[in-house]
Amino acid sequence: MAMEEGALSCLLRSRPVLEQDIKATYLMDHLISDGVLSGDEEERVRSKPTRREQAAALLELLLLKDNEAYVSFYNALVRESYGDLANLLHTSLPLGSPEAQRSFTDAGTPRVQAVLREGGVPQRPVVFVQRPRLVQQLRQQLQGLLKEPGWVVLHGMAGSGKSVLAAEAVRDHALLEECFPSGVYWLSIGQLDRSDLLARLQTLCFRLEQSQELQGPGRTPGSLEEAKERLRFLLLRRFPRSLLILDDIWDSSALKAFDVHSRVLITTRDRSIADAVNGVRQEVEVESGLDEDKALEILAMYVNTKPQQLPEQARSIVQLCKGFPLVVSLVGALLRDFPDRWAYYLTLLRRKQFRRIRKSSSYDYDALDQAMDASFQVLPEDQRELYRDLTVLEKDTKVPAQVLAVMWDLEPEEVEDILQDFVNKSLLFRDCHQRPYLYYLHDLQLDFLAEQNRNQIEALHAKVVHQYQKHYSQGPPTSGDTESLYWFRFLTHHMAQAKLTKELSSLMFSLDWVITKARVVGPSPLINDYVDHGAVLDRENSAVRGQFQEFLSLTGHQLEQRPFPDVVQLALAQPQGSEVHRQALLQARAAATRGSLYFDWQNHSGVDSVSRLVVQPNLGPVYSACFSHDGSKIAACGASNMLRVFKSTSGEKLLEVTAHDDEVLCCAFSPDDRLLATCSADRKVKVWNAERGSLLRKFEEEHEEQINHCVFTNGPRCLLLATCSNDGFMNTKLWNLNKPSSQNTMFGHLEPVTHCSFSPDDKHLATCSRDGSLKLFGVSSANEWKSFSVKDLFQEEEEGEESEVHVKCSTWSPDGTRIICAARNAVFVFSVESSELLLEIRSSRGSTVQYLHACPINGLLAVALSHYTVELWDLDSTKKVADLCGHLSWVHGVQFSPDGTMLLSCSDDHTVRLWETSRVQTSSAVRLKRDTSALFTGDRITVVAADNCNRLQVREGRTGEVMFQSEEQPSRIRCTCLNSEPSMAALGREDGTLQVLAVPSGASLAQLKGHTRTVLHCCFSRDGHTLVSSSEDCTLRVWRWRTGECQVLQGHREQVRCFTLLYSPEEQLLSWSYDGTLKLWEVCSGALLQDVEAHHQAILSCQVSADGRLAATTSADRTAKLWSCESWLCVRLLQGHKDCVRSCRFSWDSQRLATGDDNGEIRLWNVADGSLARVCSREGKDPMDSLHGGWACDLHFSPDDALLVSVGGYIKWWDVGRGEALQTFYPRGANLKRIHVSPDFSTFVTVDNIGILYVLQRVVGTLPEHHPCTLVPYNTST
What we know:
Strand content: 25-35%
Number of strands: 68
Oligomer: single chain
Helix content: 25-40%
């Protein structure tokens, strides 16, 4: 049966357009499947050399066939998205065929469908998602053509969906009726020569004339000029209010052929293409990617499923291509035929194997790489070379023109012109929100360049490095602008990619580079460099790489501070054998010749740090921190309303969200790490996208009090979120994130619930409450399963008195057979099956357990304590493994990494610390107590202090060698003192006993009993024959320690914290007490010479001037006073401190007095008139909201009174004349109580709250012959 006459005529009439546009190879598969084309006929078509000849051969065959072939060909056009061409055939479909009874469009009224069909506008693709914002924006611009002709330019990179958007924009009844009643005419242009362009113009004119059966001029236009005039006539006279859509314009010369004073919408990759034509012009830019949800919707439509049911690889594909429409469509079409190849196509994308991502399609290119290469090939040769250089850029990196000016060795203005051309051709993107403009490539463009130039990558990166060295031969840019930021962030990357190993190691093993880069971009990028390039650097020197990385990891939080700290001083606190310390010492010696102060930690070699990383996320006190389940990220929240996520390897910030209106009390990752939950004192629970930080869910109606804790189930199979709050009854809830309200409420606790945790199998939920109980609930039923009365375990201690027992938190053993909880200073381990108490762990009564967590892979338990430490216990052996010291305030949380290799802790000190569990388990360093004494004898320093095992230790300060160590004392040692001649040490204990020991033999010389309570202070007289002590029993005692004779000095009403011995004119004793009195005693007789009611509150310090004329006292009443040592009358009242005045010290010339308070503020007073001379450190409060990182506990002037040293949270040295800080030493711990200073003010000795001894030596200036470090050390000719 032959083809119907109407169908045959339509096929003949449309033949020129079909030959021009179709790809026969795409359509023949469908024709063969329908049985209308044989294999031999297919081979005959494929044998033709060009695409157009193949199309002509296929049409020749179809003209000889029947109606079935016409219908099959029509369906093939529809399936391969040749919508405009299928429209040409639709009206002539044979009668009776199903295709003739329906249109393949589902949008618009019959009038709209008819107009678009007649104009050849493509129908929606089979798989289509709405992009309403862009469509509306484009329609608004088209409405601007209502009153006068003009151009609307829709531009974007290849495959961004421009054609689909253009067709969708005109699929609107109101737009067509109001603006384009004469119709819409679509013409696909592409890359054409003059003859092809003439053919397109001829076809368009023919279509216009045929659409209204107009009588044309009689012959086909023979030239472009004639065709242009014919088109002008038709559009101005016959179709004056029509819209011409020119799809895929590449060349401005082609566009000029349509410059006939009409209304035109063009789609193009080159936004500047319309510069060549006249008339009003509006632009609409198509963003390069769909949002994740829409891209997933497309994939779901291709594989005929719901987006929620797509495999995880689907999201990875979308993220990898950033929602690029062409890639999503190509991959979706491939998956439609092979739905089990998700992993395969994801691998192709990751490997940049674009040639293999190909599919029969109406798109102009067989594969993704061809589509991208087409844009590249239109560039002039010189610009192609420049564009190829962009291969070295990193993804998601925006660069200023100045960086490319260095790379290309061109003037910035010339570079900007070139970049403008790239932007116009959609080969590059520009961020116009910043000045100067920043430029960047789409990820797929970068992948394409990387694939095209894979054999030149190393050379291209080397070119960048050499251009940089040439341009910045005198040192890197330090302005902090976008250009310098780029070089600091990516110079090491370029070196590593170029395999310039020696240049890279020379750069990264330079303290100068560390200082400069940290100042400009912060410490996290630096740490990342050592992590990312560690393997390369280790080939040069793994030890040095480790030293620099550890230095930055442990001091990075200090490098975040402003004003920027002295990195050389920080580096001087590194081990003396390290390269970091060596370079710092050389720089310090050179700077000391110019008058700078630097201090070398002499005894550092014996101190080992077990922290791996310290991060200060700028949240204030950090209440909660948690690992992601892959261990790569840490989320933290706290007293600010922020949530922050950072890398666990370097502390680099990945995400920052203003999460709540009040303190954020807890945060938790979902099992797949895609979600983050937060809860707050604002009574809200929120769920966030963990990558983008967008808010996904908010539950704010059900909890009526602050929400203390939130946690996801451990497995993703049935994802639930548990929360607990201060509500009195309905305080524990389970949430299904797909529901607007809670799924279940656990009833049982009548007091606030502070913590909840799922069992490893997610079948049970443990809750901890202020009612003193731990309860287990069934997750599926929400019914109480078991209850443990923890408060009953404290009844014997309370002796029947009512007292609250607050169960703070709980954790499960890895196998789920044990549940562990904490209350007060105790940890309890229960059997889940039998409810039996298996183990009880007690910390000191002075500390409470704040949090605990069981390691998921072994029997380790981490316990966070209020006295600033974390304890690590082995539950199997019931032994404490380690004390982790380093935090400067209460530790609020701990958590093991999923693989158990790392432990994090978060604290009130604003930091999150990471610890390596393998290192801390072997750490057993002896720690000293802060109550120390020190003697300086020539170059020798002798230090005496109690250790954490309650033994007395005498050490040689510079070497750390233990000269003597006593047996463990039966009662806690509270004070110590030394005597040089003869060499002796004394200690005072909590039981009131004093003991005198020979040094270094350790022989016990005397044991002195008499005090009834703790001995607080002791001191030898000058000749060593007398030992004086003060006590909590309100007395002082003067001992002739060899004979045991004792004289008791009574009179104080409260504990006597300290005293001082005076020797002019005779030996006297000046004591002060919490009772606010100052008393002067005669040592030999014990007579009370003066009794002064000095303050209304406790006296905290007292000092007598060097000339013996004045005494100064400071008090909790926030004042200091000067007293005459003759009359003991108050001669000056010094007011102004806003907190307890903790310390004081006279200058050696007795002209000035320094006072320090509990806010860390130090004031300098003129003794003569009591006037305030200076306030030190009024500016630059540290993150702990204290001017000194803590109480200013001790002060010392230099012999010339030009300098002052103070201790608080750290050690500071001041210029007395200007009141300015000259140097700061940050100890590992904090809360320094006392500092011992050598007579020449060159050596300083102190112990911090975690028991580390510091012997600091002032660096003496020397001028080296040449400076070993330069800011461009990678240049080997330097």
